[in-house]
Input
Amino acid sequence: MIRGIHHVAISTVDIERSLRFYRDLLGFEVIYSSAWEIGTKGADRITDLQDSSARLAMVKAANACIEIFQYSSPLPKSAEPMRPVCDHGITHICLDVADIAAEYERLKSAGMIFHCPPQGVGGLRATYGRDPDGNVVELLEVIDASSPMALKAG
Output
């Protein structure tokens, strides 16, 4: 039985830079950090990599967790930092916010790059921005609680 999503994961070139973004700027809390060295067979089996090594941190805000990895082995391939959201794969992380206009201004003034100012879509307001690695982070404010996109407890 699937109970829900536990976390999403991001691979980064610089874990400290990503922590400054997710922890310091967005307000996520680091709830776990670890690392493994080359020769950790369990990690190699799970990741289907050979001779892997990495640092990781799990960050959490409310019910959302993001696991951030910085692999040192095998040598990662660079990703297109402004990969279009229509390309296959995970396209974005969405953060539920209150007062999207204020969050947009705060993050923009801190240097976060956005595609556009918040836009009204039905009973929602949303915008896409980029983390330091180019991953898309959506800010979403539910204006109309009857919207099918409103998070319901349960």
